[in-house]
Amino acid sequence: MKRNNIIYIALSTIVALAITACTPNAPSEESCYINESQLNELVKADNGTVYDLNDFVDKFMTEPGDFDNYRTRSYYSNKVDGKDTTIFLFSIDTIPSAGPGIYIRGRVITDDYGGNFYKSLVIQQMKDGQQQTLRISVDMGSASGLYQKGQEILIRCNGLAIGRYANQPQLCVPSYNNNVYAHSANAKIGWAPGRIPSPRFKEATKLIGQPDKSKVVYEEMTMNELNTKYTSKFKMDTWADIKAIRQFDGHLVRITKVNFTGSFDDQGTLTNCEFYVPATPSEPAKGDPEVDGSNAYVFAPSTGNVGYPQSRYVRGGSPAKLLLVSASEYAKYAHFYLPPKKYVGYIQGVLGYYLDQPPTTKYPLSDKKWSVTPSNLAEDILPDCQNATDASNRWVPQEWVNGEPQDQTIYP
């Protein structure tokens, strides 16, 4: 019996030691993040250069890119600075994979918890008090779990690509679309910027310090100031304007003293949204965000999984000016009712000029191409807004349920 006890104790000790040996150490800050000293050593050992975001785009992104056979509506001819020129709305330039390291750094200014930045990030760099930004297309679900808002990152760009998708510059990889069953497939087959595979992006990216949302910079302005600095630049008939539009894309802005108008952009026409009206024997239902299309009185009704961004207008300034607020039909707040017109607050998010097809007489270039894309409902869309006549009357978001608002009396 004594011998058996000794064997049991010995086996227990071996098992305990084995379990201890197999238990991974808790990750330390040093193993997850790099500091400035480590960053400098890494770049120096790679004979690398850390580019400012605008300089990086200027150096590696050309107008036509490296590829032929882009999707068919990728480019158009226009007079730029008085000369006949081809403007490419979609392009891809590959970045050398060999040679010295090519780096960029920036702070993540988006999150995908609200579902409005699906498989994409935007990073911000502050230079001489001015922001520089760049979109990053990454094939990663719940990217904010690793790359949180406020997290500064360093990216080794060798072997990746820089391109434009709908005129918006972004770090990407080349992607060829041959989906003949896609909506408007004849206009989409061809090369376009694609998402960087998740393992490839993780390999190329280092976290600099811990996330700090307080260092995310919002450029606060009125609608008049927004128009003067940004949205009046839309003609794309000079290289200076074209460059400005592309550099301004991705900027993080906060527009003060605005209200939702209850209207949307219906293929170039300002159209009022509609509340849900049940079907009758003679009339179909209207305003159902699941069925009825783009006119429902919510942020982003269904597109039938086509997936184009939805837009709703806010208004502000004197004289009054309009700005689109963009949302995805897959956002968590897609079917929340728009705030009533009488509620005034600020809207904040990523500014963008989305131009996915050449301008025509029916769809001319205009300031209506500009939009702000918020991340989340509570944080970014009219936070702290109130009834203009009653400072204590705050807006409470309400979701579309069974076609009836919870309290329709607050709506115009």
Blueprint of the fold:
Layout: H1 2-22, H2 29-32, E1 33-34, H3 36-45, E2 49-51, H4 53-60, E3 75-80, E4 83-88, E5 91-94, E6 102-108, E7 120-127, E8 130-139, E9 152-156, E10 161-165, E11 168-177, E12 190-194, E13 196-197, H5 198-204, E14 205-208, E15 219-221, H6 223-231, H7 239-248, E16 252-260, E17 263-266, E18 269-272, E19 310-316, E20 321-327, E21 343-353, E22 370-373, H8 377-380, E23 386-387, E24 390-394
Parallel strand pairs: 1-14, 2-6, 8-11, 8-13, 15-16, 20-22
Antiparallel strand pairs: 3-4, 5-10, 6-7, 6-9, 7-8, 9-14, 10-11, 11-12, 16-19, 16-21, 17-18, 19-20, 21-22, 21-23, 23-24
Please give a quick description of this structure.
This protein has 412 residues and is an alpha+beta fold. It has helices at residues 2-22, 29-32, 36-45, 53-60, 198-204, 223-231, 239-248, 377-380, and strands at residues 33-34, 49-51, 75-80, 83-88, 91-94, 102-108, 120-127, 130-139, 152-156, 161-165, 168-177, 190-194, 196-197, 205-208, 219-221, 252-260, 263-266, 269-272, 310-316, 321-327, 343-353, 370-373, 386-387, 390-394.
